[in-house]
TrEMBL record:
<dbReference type="GO" id="GO:0016251">
    <property type="term" value="F:RNA polymerase II general transcription initiation factor activity"/>
</dbReference>
<protein>
    <recommendedName>
        <fullName>TAF6 C-terminal HEAT repeat domain-containing protein</fullName>
    </recommendedName>
</protein>
<dbReference type="GO" id="GO:0005669">
    <property type="term" value="C:transcription factor TFIID complex"/>
</dbReference>
<dbReference type="InterPro" id="IPR037796">
    <property type="entry name" value="TAF6"/>
</dbReference>
<dbReference type="GO" id="GO:0003713">
    <property type="term" value="F:transcription coactivator activity"/>
</dbReference>
<dbReference type="InterPro" id="IPR046344">
    <property type="entry name" value="TAF6_C_sf"/>
</dbReference>
<keyword id="KW-0804">Transcription</keyword>
<dbReference type="GO" id="GO:0051123">
    <property type="term" value="P:RNA polymerase II preinitiation complex assembly"/>
</dbReference>
<comment type="similarity">
    <text>Belongs to the TAF6 family.</text>
</comment>
<keyword id="KW-0805">Transcription regulation</keyword>
<dbReference type="Pfam" id="PF07571">
    <property type="entry name" value="TAF6_C"/>
</dbReference>
<feature type="domain" description="TAF6 C-terminal HEAT repeat">
    <location>
        <begin position="22"/>
        <end position="205"/>
    </location>
</feature>
<keyword id="KW-0539">Nucleus</keyword>
<dbReference type="GO" id="GO:0000124">
    <property type="term" value="C:SAGA complex"/>
</dbReference>
<dbReference type="InterPro" id="IPR016024">
    <property type="entry name" value="ARM-type_fold"/>
</dbReference>
<dbReference type="InterPro" id="IPR011442">
    <property type="entry name" value="TAF6_C"/>
</dbReference>
<dbReference type="GO" id="GO:0046695">
    <property type="term" value="C:SLIK (SAGA-like) complex"/>
</dbReference>
Length: 296
């Protein structure tokens, strides 16, 4: 007599994605996570903006926050190692959206997010070609870092001072660091307020100016610069313009003089005369504004 065994199908639990966490996301949350990340990194700009808006407004992002932080950290790491400027921009926009979400407290994930965004500020190269507009991403990343400092800095974590210390490292050894990194550090200090600029950037302008003088005035003074190329000249001009744009408005309010730039040259070196010219241009613009207001 044959024994007929009843067939019992084997049941397997299928996860869309395995997360290394003691509390894995539900299937619905995993679908939500994939929809957000794929939508933001996809080709459709409308879908991207909609998903970024969800990150900035939806309460349910709380459950995804640990995974999104790791995703952003890894995305920035990979796309700096193999430069993809577009994906880096999307990554920093994600951080900005999370920062804007009133229902989120990202303080527990700042150890992932701050170093990642700072990498976009200070990395030697974040785009495939030097003539790509990576400067805009550096500026945007600086703004995001300053917003994080403003929102989450306190006496215990001392985030702002730690960020200032990171910005100062390349400026203390400016001759040993790429100009793109120096640019990011200057813009970073400039975004943290006038007192930070006066305390930490002012004393270093003269030294940085010596480097810029060699690169930008080589033809006038017949300097020989080994391996000088168009990229170095472009980067030097961006560093120079960053200093002028940050420092001149502060000098207009605090140290405006009419000595033809002698005082500025003594304190700021090569950039002194340029700063004096910029301050006088700003003074003229301010005068015209006041004149038009008085007229009306």
């Amino acid at each position: 007599m044959s024994i007929v065994q009843k067939f019992v199908p084997k049941v397997d639990t299928v996860f869309l994605k395995v997360f290394p966490d003691n509390h894995p996301l539900s299937v619905e949350e995993q679908i939500f996570y994939l929809t957000l990340t794929e939508g933001i990194f996809g080709y459709n700009e409308q879908v991207r903006n909609e998903n970024l808006k969800i990150l900035a407004t939806d309460y349910n992002i709380n459950s995804l926050l640990p995974y999104l932080s790791i995703f952003i950290k890894q995305a920035i790491h990979v796309n700096i190692a193999h430069p993809d400027l577009t994906l880096l921009i999307y990554s920093v926009r994600m951080v900005k959206s999370l920062l804007n979400n009133q229902y989120l407290n990202i303080v527990e994930h700042l150890h992932d997010l701050i170093p990642a965004v700072l990498s976009c500020v200070l990395a030697r190269r974040i785009s495939k070609c030097y003539y790509d507009n990576h400067w805009t991403l550096r500026d945007f990343s600086v703004f995001v870092i300053s917003a994080i400092c403003e929102k989450y800095n306190n006496r215990l974590n001392n985030i702002t001072n730690r960020v200032i210390g990171i910005y100062l490292r390349p400026l203390k050894a400016y001759s040993m660091n790429p100009l793109t990194t120096i640019y990011g550090a200057i813009k970073g200090l400039g975004c943290l307020g006038e007192e930070v600029v006066k305390t930490f950037l002012f004393p270093r302008i003269s030294g940085i100016g010596k480097l810029l003088f060699i690169l930008l005035e080589r033809q006038t003074h017949n300097f020989y610069v080994e391996e000088l190329n168009d990229q170095m000249i472009l980067e030097a001009k961006h560093v120079r313009d960053a200093i002028l744009n940050i420092v001149a408005p502060i000098l207009l309010k605090t140290k405006n003089t009419n000595d033809g730039g002698m005082l500025y040259s003594q304190y700021f070196g090569y950039l002194g005369n340029l700063l004096y010219t910029e301050v006088k241009n700003l003074e003229k613009i301010e005068f015209e504004k006041q004149k038009s207001i008085t007229y009306y």
